Fold each of these.
Amino acid sequence: MSETDTLRDNRDRGGPAQPLVLAQNLTKHFPIRSGLLNRQTATVHAVDGVSFAVHKGETLGIVGESGCGKSTTARLLIGLIELDDGTIVFDGDALGSAISLRDMRKSVQMVFQDSYASLNPRLTIEETIAFGPKVQGLADPLGRARDLLGKVGLDPNRFAHRYPHELSGGQRQRVNIARALAMSPRLVILDEAVSALDKSVEAQVLNLLCDLKDEFGLTYVFISHDLNVVRFISDRVLVMYLGEVVEVGPVEAIYGKQAHPYTASLFSAMPSMDPDNRTMEPPLSGDPPNPVNPPSGCRFHTRCRFAEDVCSGAKPALATFGNHPDHLAACHMHDPASGHSLAGAEASA
Amino acid sequence: MSTAIALAASASTSGRRGYWSGVLKRFSRDPVAVGCTVILLVLILAAIFAPYLDLADPYKGSMIKRLRPVGTEGLPLGTDEQGRDMLARLIYGGRLTLYVGLMPVVFAFFIGAALGVTAGYVGGFVNTVIMRVVDIFFAFPSVLLAIAISGALGAGIVNSLVSLTIVFIPPITRVAESVTSSVRSLDYIDAAKASGGDAFTIVRVHVLGNVLGPVFVYATSLTSVCMILAAGLSFLGIGVKPPEPEWGLMLNTLRTAIYVNPVVAALPGIMIFITSLCLNLLSDGLRSAMNVRD
Amino acid sequence: MLVYLLRRLLYVCPVAIGVSAICFMLVHVAPGDPLTAIMAVDATAQEQEAMRAAYGLDKPLPTQYVIWLGKAVQGDLGKSIASGRPVAGEVIGAVQNSLVLAFAASLIAFPLGIFLGFLAGYFRDSWIDRAVTTVAIAGVSLPNYWLGIVLVIIFSVTLGWLPAMGAGDGAWMWDFTHLSHIILPAITLSVVPIGIVARTMRALVGEIYSMDFVQALYAKGLHRGDVLRHVVRNAAPTGLSVMGIQLGYLLGGSILIETVFNWPGTGFLLSNAIFQRDLPLLQGTILVLALFFVLVNLTVDVAQAIIDPRIKRS
């Protein structure tokens, strides 16, 4: 259904086979300055060579511990942070050459985690939603704003003139969604958009997001640390660790069998509903290593139970795993040529 | 000083009221602030409409009526060392005193806010240049800087305005820069950028509305110091020139009279004190009404 | 912390150079010719040129600045136009007198301000708090030069208890005659810092008492006195920095008070310099005072770094 919708969109130039976003080798290093002369003494490897595609009409979930580079990736995608390296191709147009950042921003919008900090306290919610359409010169911004308030379930007659502090957290997040939709985007990045909400409100907002996706033919990038929520909303899942992609694949494939030991431990930290299937072994212990000096080779080797010499020596590449062609993981255990003792055998994670 | 915006968290959420009507409501419930506003308004209106108040000529002296005490028939506040009517001189004196005492903060507010918002929003090299220059001016205690510039420029109303404006630009710039930097890091600025707004539009719509309030409150807290300093410059003889009536200058010329008529000699100081006290209390009232804290 | 201290020290250099540039420019924004005061009225154009050259005023401004700065670094601030004596000597004598006054005023202001502020912060929203707040706001609203006059009217003119003018004869000593001269100006000067220190301490102490850790201390069963020790430790760095800055302001703010009491300090020197249009003297005095203020700020920051664990460990 969403496929017919995207086909109807006259901005769709590449057709359904062309990914909406193709991110290649995204890299962002933040310098740390210290010392007497404020020289750069270290680098935070926030995002290091991340590549992925977002297909039209799908929801791509991005998961990982805090500090793994999820939010930085989101901000790189929307151009709020400048890329150090890598390319972004939007529907076949390379950003910076075929399409300008300003033009791409008409098609990409973002919803932030902190519903309060993402609304200007001095503007009514109607003015906040109308700001984008106004600067882009769209017709009747205020009418559009009231329209969208209705779509996100807030009666415009009651809410249009209110200020952010007069709304609940769930209502504010609905406003943020309406603000994103006001630009008629094709891609919406949801950066922990429901994480700060109460569980019941979270469910309502998630349902709203699903409805809006169908209605407007949207594509979502959904960033979260909550695996249950990601499973509910995503078509495909991308797992990040210390600024790198360790595993990516369809939601049912990954939730069925995790290819990367990190993904496996992440999922084993998820409480099970089945009393016969309790978590017996401890999930991940300790904090992730410092992204200032990430470990060599496979960045997970410092916490991995299966780590061997090869893991600290060479960086594993993303390769297909199991019987699903779209299920990729970066682990030496799945590469028979790597020299890992468990390579080739099915790792019993 | 780290000025942060306390986001307006009002208890009642009913109705469609804006930020400013809430501020007005809270302000009007503060009897001290309202009282000070009334006193200041009376002083300002009296100064503006002094010529219509049927007062004696504040410039006309009399050799025989010098230094009459307070309560003399026809001279309720006595006369000064040249026999000029003190009541008339105190009311007319409000004109220059308030003008030179308040306008520098107004000028400094606009210049300092512009510099601070630019430094805070643009950041980087621009920020470094602006803030380092501000730091240099901060190396002077305000009284010293005012006296230094006024002393070099010489007496006169314009020179006083210039030197006091220069004194108050750095502190206002600093506050504006720090508030702007903290606002700039909030998500709604990122959201506005993602909507394709250019820097100028974002500053106009999203930054100024959240920055100018706290900066304005801070500027009002400087008015009292500015008043005292402006009168102080005149008191030193490097502000307003005689024979203009001005409270600081009157305080100076009446110093010779303290042995003869101490109460009259103290009157101009009482006016300065009342005004600056009201300005301070008014600023405190505004601060709490606008939910600004530092 | 060493890096922090070194950076802070290094940072003083550009500020000091900026300060000297402003002081240098003071003379050049001044209207009229800096030499009018000493130039003979009937000097010919040639004589005027010769004089200019003698004072180095014929060179371009940046050159003049570098020459002036080079001499200033060696302690040569030029000669007073009015008295012909070296500026440096006159300024040093005056700074000593001003320091004595600032020190005396801070002896009154700091203990009193801290005490009042603690009292108000501890008994927040009580009548004590309101009384202290009123006193503090009155203190910062007082034009202190006027307060000086009022004190003279009361204690010198009416009661005849204390001298109204000067610092006493001869060099400064901490004896009865000299102390009787310093009482009135020191009280006058201390009023504003009392208000500022009390207000700051009140806010600080009130804020610390409302923090969760104070509740935790009470919950552990600590006595009020022991809790107070924790509060004092937390208030110390900020309190110290406020006092340090106030000490600097006392030095600069004393100019008006010194004029009221004819106190032979920098303020007195400055007003003489202004009225005799003695620009080298004006320039030198301001430079020394501002550099002193920079030094005070530096000392405060270093002291703060030493007692504040958050800076110490960074």
Amino acid sequence: MLIIGELINTSRKAIREAVENKDGEYIKQIAKAQFEAGANYIDVNCGTRVYDEVEIMEWLVNLVQEAVEAPLCIDSPNPLAIEKGLSLAKYGQPMINSITAEKERYEQILPLVQKYKAKVVALCMDDTGMPETADDRMRVVRTLHQNLTAAGVPEDDIYFDPLVKPVSTGDNAGLEVLETVDLITKQYPNVHKVCGLSNISYGLPNRKVLNQLFMVQTMTMGMDSYILDPLDKTMMGFVYGSQALLGKDPYCMNYLTVHRNGLYA
Amino acid sequence: MAEFNKMSEMVIAGDFAGVKALTQKMIDDQVDPISIINDGLMPGMNVVGVRFKAGDMFVPEVMMSAKAMAAGIELVKPLIAESNMPTAGKVLVGTVKGDLHDIGKKLVNMMLESAGFQIIDLGVDIAPAKFVEAVKEHKPDVVGMSALLTTTMLSMKDTIDALKEEGLRDRVKVIIGGAPVTQSFAEQIGADGYAPDAAAATDLCKQLTAN
């Protein structure tokens, strides 16, 4: 299980303000809190800084690494910002979020995956647009799996993101993702699967509850990594509990450890 | 008329079959088709818009209401000469070049259509030249651009610049939206407005076309 802490993202108000005010201490504090709460990777996304993204990426990456010795997930559609983040990442194996099967994006990102031997989030999307069904997604999975492995990317470094869409705009949006995760697990047992959780609940009340339930449902189908807010104790409690119940936590050791550390208190 | 109120209630409740049956009944009773739209269907959808904005109704309910309203419109439309069809204005929409996201745009379309706007949806990955061409062809009141990626949102500026070069900028209002887009970005690139969600986009179009 890989938990990618999602909080350092300039589309969030608190981070946007910290960047604007050059409040490095806040960034460090959030990095540290996420790491201590169980995040394995710290996501860094400053894509909303259209005109100075590369510069801000450098600032954020350096701050995060002053605070924690954690590997980073460099999150941007901009290859220049990704390269800047990767070139500075110094702890463990960095991760790129994300590559897609869109021709231009694929050609821009692949060299970075190879150069930095990075893990990579592979988004189930190609030049035909957003996928609707599990079949649409599996078509992209096949293409990306074939191309990435042929390019020398180890299966263990590939994290397929099925692309979660809101259930409020399509009744089967959740089901299509669950089916995709199941198919990937069966057809490509050596790759990983990852997703964010907030898209599923867009347009509906009680979003946190739906996000938590969708985490449990996707994990049951074989999802093994999440981009989430590790400071959400209820969510993290469900992550550890769900892992134990699915036989992914030998002797329930992680579950018991987080219990002793007061996660469920 | 009590039947108009009933129709509005059915639109609010998303009662697809009910709206369809009542519209047919009103047509059979020789009710003015334009009045069916303006006094029955539209007032219902207006309530939906207000409740959605207030957080009392949610996206799936709005979709059901829009579908119910569309069922009524479909029946009355053939009875109204095209030039007499009540319309709040014409909006040309598209996701910008290099960007394939369309969920947000679909919601905006649905809300706008329900508010009486005529929508021309160009689709996704629309280059500035295509927007320009479509503006010439369709002569919309408003052009709405969507972008979900920080790398593609700059194409919004290219489109606005292209409209300027072609001398079309003064003939249309330009509005933008999408997750990375902000009010200040709209101002920077010379758009007429920014909307954070579908309900706001509808209000914005109403405001811009009223002037």
